[in-house]
From TrEMBL:
Signal peptide: none annotated. Belongs to the ABC-4 integral membrane protein family. It comes from Thermosynechococcus vestitus (strain NIES-2133 / IAM M-273 / BP-1). This is ABC transporter permease protein. Keywords: Cell membrane, Membrane, Transmembrane, Transmembrane helix.
Length: 405
């Protein structure tokens, strides 16, 4: 018997038991779809995280007070960074281009009965260039605003729309912590960063923030939430981190553990990439269990099929079919089930990834490696789990089989 005839007989047999064949393929379909979807969504999450960090500004470093261990031990953020540290970094570190110190606090902003609780950022004129923000209307904070502790504010685009609706906000007065602030500008749209809408923030001079909103919290000067630093270029990032570390250790007279943490975009992306890779592999492994279950289902159904078709096997052997012919037919049936299930599962997985890309901000995409791996594994599973039933059918004694006729 040639391969073509074996394939035709296998297809005819599977068509005769459509419901059973469909249920047998279900495990393979779910496994393939889940593997492709999980890998595609995982890679999309990585690309989304990378784009989010790139939006923070090119070649940016972030200096935060305390160590991760210290911040975990207490709910209060350590007050170890002050404005003078930021000024020292700007003037004494040659690999640094600009420095933007920041103080952040949630406060209520009010305008004519409309109010909302948003992030208030006290900063300096260098903030837009360091963090890649632009002003869409009006102007940003000036050096004179900082020196004179002026009560001026720049609104994020969404915050301006929420408070002023169709009015022009520039020149109007809003209230922050029961103090009146003049709106001098509106920022261009920036988008969300890891779930936080950067367009709903308000920006005021750092000195005004310290003296009027948060108050003096450190005996050594104006304490900061963190410091954003832009290196001169990508090649200067590591050197800038090293030089800033040495400068702050000297200024803080540190001889043991640092009381600050410096993190670069590259390090943050690496951490997120490692986490997302681990989660993707874990989810893909869990999804792969469905492929294993599907393979066991194929073997189970094929064993049942051998039992049901004992007479057919006996008759075929009696008229000249060899063990190889019987083995080939049952192996082909198992491979058709797994291959067809793999193709359907691949289609569902690709469709799921495309749906995620349309409905969410994740830049999900279909990974060719994942498709090849899922289809290859499903085909291999059909081949592997089809061996036992096929061998059992091929070794069946025709005399014993014909006795049941």
């Amino acid at each position: 018997m040639d391969i073509g005839e074996s394939v035709r007989m296998a297809i005819a047999t599977l068509k005769a038991n459509r419901l059973r064949s469909g249920l047998t393929m279900l495990g393979i379909i779910i496994g393939n779809a889940a593997v492709i979807a999980m890998v595609g969504v995982g890679q999309g999450a990585q690309r989304y995280a990378a784009s989010q960090f790139e939006s923070l500004g090119p070649n940016t470093l972030f200096i935060v007070p305390g160590t991760p261990q210290a911040r975990n031990r207490t709910s209060n953020v350590p007050q170890t960074l002050v404005l003078e540290d930021a000024k020292a970094i700007a003037t004494q570190v040659p690999t640094v281009q600009e420095v933007a110190p920041q103080i952040q606090l949630q406060q209520r902003v009010t305008y004519r009965g409309r109010n909302t609780n948003v992030l208030i950022v006290g900063t300096t004129p260098t903030f837009p260039s360091v963090r890649s923000f632009t002003v869409a209307q009006g102007r940003f904070i000036s050096d004179e605003d900082v020196q004179r502790h002026r009560r001026v504010v720049i609104l994020g685009s969404d915050l301006a729309k929420k408070l002023f609706i169709n009015e022009n906000p520039v020149g109007q007065q809003v209230r922050i912590k029961n103090l009146s602030f003049e709106v001098i500008g509106v920022m261009a749209e920036k988008g969300a960063f890891l779930g936080n809408n950067q367009d709903e923030a308000a920006y005021i001079p750092i000195t005004t923030m310290s003296s009027r909103i948060v108050g003096q919290r450190s005996p050594y000067g104006i304490s900061l939430t963190f410091i954003s630093v832009s290196a001169r270029d990508e090649q200067s990032i590591d050197a800038a981190k090293f030089q800033i570390t040495n400068l702050l250790r000297l200024r803080h007279q540190i001889v043991d553990e640092d009381d600050f943490t410096i993190q670069t975009q590259k390090e943050a992306l690496q951490i997120i990439g490692n986490i997302s890779n681990a989660l993707t592999l874990m989810l893909a492994a869990i999804a792969g269990i469905s492929l294993l279950v599907g393979g066991i289902g194929i073997m189970n159904i094929m064993l049942v099929s051998v039992t049901e078709r004992t007479q057919e096997i006996g008759l075929r052997k009696a008229i000249g079919a060899t063990q190889r012919d019987i083995l080939a037919q049952f192996m082909i049936e198992a491979m058709i089930l797994s291959a067809l299930g793999g193709l359907i599962g691949t289609g569902l997985g690709v469709g799921g990834v495309m749906l995620v890309a349309i409905l969410t901000p994740l830049e999900a995409g279909v990974a060719p490696v994942a498709v090849a791996l899922a289809v290859g594994v499903s085909g291999s599973i059909g081949l592997f789990f089809g061996v036992v039933p096929a061998q059992r059918a091929a070794r069946l004694d025709p005399i014993v089989a014909l006795r049941s006729v």
